[in-house]
Amino acid sequence: xxxxxxxxxxxxxxxxxxxxxxxxxxxxxxxxxxxxxxxxxxxxxxxxxxxxxxxxxxxxxxxxxxxxxxxxxxxxxxxxxxxxxxxxxxxxxxxxxxxxxxxxxxxxxxxxxxxxxxxxxxxxxxxxxxxxxxxxxxxxxxxxxxxxxxxxxxxxxxxxxxxxxxxxxxxxxxxxxxxxxxxxxxxxxxxxxxxxxxxxxxxxxxxxxxxxxxxxxxxxxxxxxxxxxxxxxxxxxxxxxxxxxxxxxxxxxxxxxxxxxxxxxxxxxxxxxxxxxxxxxxxxxxxxxxxxxxxxxxxxxxxxxxxxxxxxxxxxxxxxxxxxxxxxxxxxxxxxxxxxxxxxxxxxxxxxxxxxxxxxxxxxxxxxxxxxxxxxxxxxxxxxxxxxxxxxxxxxxxxxxxxxxxxxxxxxxxxxxxxxxxxxxxxxxxxxxxxxxxxxxxxxxxxxxxxxxxxxxxxxxxxxxxxxxxxxxxxxxxxxxxxxxxxxxxxxxxxxxxxxxxxxxxxx
Length: 508
Prior knowledge:
The chain is an alpha/beta fold.
């Protein structure tokens, strides 16, 4: 399918939006189990809102423990040896993933609009980043489905030894509200490629695109029970997944605090396998020999993209003191060009925060920056009254002991520090409980290699930021999580390795 230009998307959106999606057209609001739409076992629903306007979009069925039990029963049946799914050729699994990608291409405008309505992120970001990344993820793992294989091993003695890769079984996935559709695909694509069945809980703030994908999974003719979608709350449906004794693995993206609870629940239930992609307080080191304007622009993309609601957000910017003042000035000028407004307006590049709780947390941290002595250079306030919009905010003169220097803000706040030496910068950058991503800006290859080797993060970007690719593994050190998503590495998270050893007959 030919890629549309930005102009074509803008024109199509302007014409099609009233017909593409409105409250009456949001059809998929129920629990999806065994390829069927079901109501909550306890008869409860919860509302989902447009954070840009505060308007209720619709009510969604609220799954609880009983619904998780039903989903597990369905997923277990689909995962049984001899089932249609387990008997399916690996290449046929790949074809199903490609078919799902085709259907998402068909519904790309609708899905991008739903994502924008439910999250508040600008429409063109939903269309070009979230949908593009989701479709690429499906196609990448569709290609892997018939290429997952073991090895033959040269063991001692008269034996033949080989390994097989088999599915883990029933996999639970709990996804966040900041990238609902993309994180859905990061979880199900490798899991299905390896032959597992899945129970996925979207965030209660943003369930709509996940539920629409449920309809596409059924349309693509995945066998019943292979994918089950359980909208609900973390304290009930999410906890039921983490504690369930018949779920063999759980994957979670979200806060470090909740990740710790999930790890504890997994250990106490059945020692289920756990992969976690958690928080970050991500350092960028800007050396005096860098392309300064490139550094300013890339770092602000990292700081303000998705209103700063990213685990990869550029949270701590260490700038060599000889260029510090110029970096701050250019950052302010660059921030002035950010367009705040209606996320469905193609000109908008900065939308609202997800909800009042997140808004209040960010404003509290901005207030702490002011009271603890950082210099507010730009922004720092709400946009309008009784809205969830926050201005892109820049602090200079930030010190390592301040709250804004240590806590994950998850909002549009850029904190700029100064440093004198490379050793100082690296030591301060690594002085964090987190270790998700980092970035280095320099024209020196030697410096880039030495600093990247010293960084205690799962990803290091050199002269770029947010350069995520489905082929490259993603995950963190320290309290930013464990395990890896994306790339070939993710397949290991959804596979069991079985060793098979044959005793050979002696021959002359």
